[in-house]
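Shift notes (night). Ran Pyrophosphate--fructose 6-phosphate 1-phosphotransferase while the centrifuge was going.
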Amino acid sequence: MRIGVLTGGGDCPGLNAVIRAAVRKGISDYGHEFIGFRDGWRGPLEGDTMPLDVSTVRGILPRGGTILGSSRTNPMKIDGGVEHIKDNLANHGVDALIAIGGEDTLGVAKQLFDREVKVVGVPKTIDNDLNATDYTFGFDTAVNIAVEAIDRLHTTAESHHRALICEVMGRHAGWIALHAGMAAGANVVLIPEKPFDIERVCEYVESRFKTRYAPIIVVAEGAHPLEGQMSLQSGELDAFGHVRLGGVGEWLAREIEKRTGKEARTTVLGHIQRGGTPTAFDRVLATRFGLQAIDAVHQGDFGKMVALRGTDIVRVPLAEATAELKTVPESRYAEAEVFFG
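Came back to this:
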């Protein structure tokens, strides 16, 4: 078989480990050939490819990002997009695709499978919000980066007697904020799933200032206050219809200073969270996903996504994986609330 591989959406630590594992096992165990499609769905849409063999993937395990490049191209929004992809796959002799990505990339994969394209999905998102898998690779790296940053913020906050806010990624799901906040001893964690009361946040800040320590607030970019008190959307949309977010950290700093009289500053981690070297956990998980993905292709088990359940790698229908987002349940947020203030 000749197998195409693509990586779509935001870059993520561990992508190269998936590519490496699939190619190494596919060639050595099954004798398959591989071709890489550049920049997500733009590659098969425009026929933009690169060689993908053992020499290509040598040494990429610890590298962040993706050697194939990525984009947020949505072929479903382009006239004749599906036909272009089918034609280019045929022109390059591609028998099947491995699509590595998050909700949007795998959503396209599911629609292509419905149109008779042979595809297997691999879950990728630092937000950990993909349904049907316990964890996605990239999440552990993002959390560890955030924890290191928050640990450093603690000492600055205490030295200058100011409140420090750390804004992390998380459009619809607050998994990064929750895990990083709990691990780094934040005094408040704010997530998209639960609108916050700014007055209550300020009470936590003032309570913390009564100790010899200073408050640290971890907020997901998609968090918002009660009753729609403010808008943090720019109005700009990407190819998948997502509104660009930003500004909740700065808004919080202004409100805290205004309401408490205490100095407050914001640090926005942004793309730092998803760049650089993946953790050992993410390298192993991504490698296992790649090995299982090529097994699924070899066995003709298309329309599936590999997923982590407990410590096992299983296969689930792409439809199940993309049906809904995995958000933080109330019970998990309640665990973090014990340490607020």
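DSSP finds twelve helices and 13 strands in the chain. The longest helix spans residues 139-160.
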